[in-house]
Amino acid sequence: MGIHVIKMPDIGEGIAEVELVAWHVKIGDMVAEDQPLADVMTDKATVEIPAPVVGRVVALGGDVGQVMAVGGELIRLEVEGEGNLKPGADAPPAKAAAAPAAAQPAAAAPAPQSAPAPKA
């Protein structure tokens, strides 16, 4: 068994991001090739994203209403044989990775310290 990562396809010239408007699958679902996975919306149209392979959904890359970058991770499927995810490149899906990254700036900022009182 391998993992196949499906990235947000380039759906039009000049389109850099899309809004995820609907999931047609959930974690644990088996999907067939060409089965609709999700609907995404650009400024001009809503587009259905089909599965390029047969597999079982193991991770969703975002929530409905989330803006996603073209080329970003959309979904992960467990597939028969070898997937397209290279060993050691097992980064968590974008949805899971966003929370720790957002918390980092607050932790990196030094705590304000008051200056010592001058002696008289």
Summarize the structure.
With 120 residues, the protein is mainly β. It has one helix spanning 94-108; strands at 2-7, 17-23, 30-31, 36-41, 46-50, 55-60, 67-69, 73-79.
Structure description:
It is built from one helix and eight strands; from the N terminus they run E-E-E-E-E-E-E-E-H. It is mainly β and 120 residues long. The protein has a single domain (2-85), classed as RNA polymerase II/Efflux pump adaptor protein, barrel-sandwich hybrid domain (OB fold (Dihydrolipoamide Acetyltransferase, E2P)). A four-stranded antiparallel sheet has the order 1-8-6-3, with no helix packed on it. A four-stranded antiparallel sheet has the order 5-4-2-7, with no helix packed on it. The longest helix is centred in the last third of the chain and has 15 residues, at 94-108. It is globular, with a radius of gyration of 20 Å. The protein starts with a strand and ends in a 12-residue tail after the last helix.
